[in-house]
Amino acid sequence: MTGGVQDEGTDEEFLKSPFIRDEGNIYKPNNKNMDNDSVNEKTLEDVHTKEIDLVNRDPKHLNEDVVKVDFEDVIAEPPGTYSFDGVWKASFTTFTVTKYWFYRLLTALVGIPLALVWGIFFAILSFLHIWAVVPCIKSYLIEIHCLSRVYSICIHTFCDPFFEAMGKCFSNIHVRAVKEV
Questions:
Q1: Is 34 exposed, middle or buried, given 0-12, 13-18 or 19+ CB atoms closer than 10 A?
Q2: What angle do CA 116, 122, 127 make, to 5 degrees?
Q3: Is 21 helix (H, G, I), strand (E, B) or coil?
Q4: What pLDDT digit, counting tens, does each position of 32-51 carry?
Q5: Cβ contact 64:58 at 8 Å
Q6: C-alpha to C-alpha distance for 159 and 152, rounded to whole angstroms
Q7: Which residues, 6 or more positions from 88, have their beta carbon under 8 angstroms from its beta carbon?
Q8: Do residues 75 and 98 make contact, with C-beta atoms less than 8 angstroms apart?
Q9: CB 18 within 8 A of CB 3
Q10: Which of 3, 7, 48, 117 would bridge 19 by S-S if both were Cys, CB 3.0 to 4.6 A apart?
Q11: Is the pLDDT of residue 7 over 80?
Q12: Separation between Cα atoms, residue 167 and residue 157, nearest integer Å
């Protein structure tokens, strides 16, 4: 089946797409399911518009130990030096509400610009890593391989016989430790 004109003497119908070889697509030779993919084009899920979890906003626990700051972590009165109960409750409420709303205000004002800055930063970092750092390291490893061969030949030529001879010279020396009381 090549996708050409069908012979008149055969009543064979195309069970597969006529442009797919039995062994798979020419661009993906091991893909047996290419027929289904080409006839019924599947929609791919875009990773940039994936759904985010609005409940668990730190699924990888990046800021678990860093930013958990509660009133009790910052302000504490040791026994014997207590303020009025009303002042303590008002201080707690003031701290908690101020932290909550000021964080929201800062994220509303600065969050999107900082997300833009960090997105650009990590895009540049990824670009440099992919297009500059890894090729430089690979180039360095290829170039240093030649030097390592020369170094290895020098060591095996000059140092190995020397240390082998020294080993034979000192192989007959026996050290005995005697403890006298």
A1: buried
A2: 125
A3: strand
A4: 555 455 444 445 555 666 77
A5: yes
A6: 10
A7: 77, 82
A8: no
A9: yes
A10: 3
A11: no
A12: 16
Q: How many CB atoms lie within 10 A of CB 20?
A: 21
What is the dihedral sign for C-alpha 78, 80, 85, 87?
negative
Neighbours of 4 (CB within 10 A): 7
pLDDT digits (tens, 9 = 90+) for 72-105: 888 888 898 889 999 999 999 999 999 999 999 9
Report the amino acid identity of residue 178.
Answer: V
> What is the C-alpha to C-alpha distance for residues 134 and 139, in angstroms, rounded to an integer?
8
Tokens 């039995």: give the residue.
22
Q: What is the pLDDT of residues 129-158, one digit of tens each?
A: 999 999 999 999 999 998 999 999 999 999
CB 38 within 8 A of CB 17: yes
User: 5-13 long-range CB contacts below 8 Å, 24 or more apart?
Assistant: none
